[in-house]
TrEMBL record:
Name recorded for this polypeptide: Putative HTH transcriptional regulator
Residue stretches making up the Schlafen AlbA-2 domain: 25-143
Pfam assignment, any one: HATPase_c_4
Organism the protein comes from: Cereibacter azotoformans
Length: 490
């Protein structure tokens, strides 16, 4: 969200009030009167950015026009807009000497009748910030090289490792009323199983504890990416970058995208706030088979609900949030469902079942698990494949397509109608699922999985030979062929 000029001016004034009220400068805050030395400013930008990350601050600040000793606002003659260095505009000169690139911002502030200059410096995000290929840090009033203080360098790298998209800010300097109007806070308390506090202080305290919001200056608040992507009442309220991460659903009238679109929904709510509504919407569109029980007829969906729920949750959790203009996509065809999320996988798709779980969005994943919107870490794909086998569906296809992951989830089909590739993939997934549960795949278990008549055991044998020849499975004990089979990575 972009602040209006009046909001920006008011926030800057409130920010400077807070900075001046501090008893002394901090490692991420520096006051100057008129010092315009370009090299000094470059070193300070590096030092303040690195120090801000060490102190868990989103920004460092350099303020001209405030006296260092007593923090009196005396004004400044420093003019960043007209200053030139080596024939270049000063801001361009500075930007070209900072690595990695840094979105710093100079602003002139009319502060109580005196002219100040505020430089806002984002905290280091992915690596220590260098000026002219050297990293600096603030220690007291000194600005030494970071490499001369290895203990601080180690601490900085430790801080950089967990830094994630979720911690970024999507709305700044909003009032408490705005926070409550934009975030579905009641849903947050309901999903996390907490009692809704009877006062605003209690509400904000809990939202801040889960890093959905953070305090800004002058009694205002910031809303984090995590807070907005999970609990936004309307993602559009947070700008186009967040709005495009809404879940998009498209249903087609046939087996391909050339067929007419029968239903379309572009998600506008945050993932947690809108999750159950999305699942119910999908469930209402799914075709059903009639099942005759001992006394009643009942309709059952073609796709197991737990598998859809888990696959959708996985797409939300494991997407690469830094890819702009893209979000999770769910497509329903007459013979399958495809779920796509932006971002190359962190592990190979054929190892989704067994590889240690990894996520780009740990805070998002952790909170969604706490709210029971998805399975515990590492068990989701197990649940999907177990449900697929129980319903004797064709094996889902987990694949990488460009910079995205796509899962193709097929409608029921007889064994005779499966392709050879699908039969081999089913064999591999069955062997992996058996191994993960402490068992081994055999000809008999594969026949049960695929619905092969026991009189046609040779069909299962052919599939096993193909899977072995494709290096997807191997004999558990080559000396004892009847010992069963395990996946290639076992």
């Amino acid at each position: 969200m972009t602040l209006s000029p009046n909001q920006t001016l008011e926030r800057n004034r409130r920010l400077i009030d807070d900075l001046r009220a501090r008893p002394a400068e901090t490692p991420w805050l520096e006051f100057k009167e008129n010092n315009a030395d370009a090299s000094l400013i470059g070193k300070l930008v590096s030092a303040l950015s690195n120090a801000a990350r060490l102190a868990d601050q989103h920004f460092g600040y350099l303020v001209w026009g405030v006296r260092d000793g007593n923090h009196e606002a005396v004004g400044t003659s420093f003019d960043f807009a007209t200053k030139r260095e080596q024939g270049q505009p000063f801001e361009l000169w500075l930007a070209n000497r900072l690595q990695p690139g840094l979105d710093f911002r100079f602003e002139e502030v009319d502060y109580r009748g005196v002219r100040l200059v505020l430089l806002t410096i984002p905290a280091a995000g992915t690596a220590p910030i260098e000026f002219d290929r050297i990293s600096y840090v603030r220690i007291g009033s000194a600005t030494p090289r970071l490499s001369d203080h290895p203990e601080r360098l180690r601490a900085l790298w430790a801080r950089l490792q967990p830094y994630a998209w979720e911690a970024g800010l999507t709305a700044q300097f909003v009032t408490g009323d705005d926070v409550l109007a934009r975030l579905d806070y009641a849903n947050y308390f309901d999903l996390t199983g907490q009692r809704l506090p009877d006062n605003r202080h209690g509400i904000f305290d809990r939202l801040q504890a889960d890093r959905l919001i953070q305090q800004d200056v002058g009694g205002h608040w910031n809303i984090t990416n995590l807070g907005a992507i999970l609990f936004a009442k309307r993602l559009a309220d947070f700008g186009p970058s967040l709005e495009r991460k809404g879940v998009r659903f498209v249903a087609y009238g046939g087996p391909g995208r050339a067929y007419a679109v029968t239903h379309r929904q572009d998600g506008q709510r945050g993932y947690a706030a809108g999750f159950q509504g999305l699942i119910d919407f999908i469930d209402g569109l799914l075709p059903r088979n009639e099942h005759i029980g001992s006394a009643f007829r009942e309709e059952r969906p073609l796709y197991p609900a737990i598998a859809i729920r888990e696959l959708v949750a996985n797409a939300l959790i494991h997407q690469d949030m830094t890819i702009t203009g893209a979000g999770p996509l769910i497509e329903l065809f007459s013979d399958r469902m495809e779920i796509t999320n932006p971002g190359a996988p962190l592990v190979s798709p054929d190892r989704f079942l067994d590889a240690p779980p990894r996520s780009r969005n740990e805070a998002l994943a952790s909170l969604m698990r706490r709210m029971r919107l998805c399975e515990e870490q590492g068990t989701g794909i197990d649940k999907v494949l177990t449900a697929v086998e129980l319903h004797q569906l064709p094996p889902p296809d987990f694949r990488t397509e460009g910079e995205a992951v796509r899962v193709v989830f097929f409608a029921p089909r007889r064994f005779a109608d499966m392709t050879p590739e699908e039969r081999v993939r089913a064999c591999y997934q069955h062997a992996a699922l058996k191994y993960e549960s402490g068992q081994r795949m055999t000809n008999a278990t594969l026949r049960d999985r695929l619905g092969i008549d026991p009189r046609n055991a040779s069909q299962a044998s052919v599939i096993i030979r193909l899977a072995v020849g494709s290096d997807l499975i191997r004999p558990a004990d080559p000396e004892h062929p009847r010992a069963g089979y395990v996946p290639f990575w076992a």
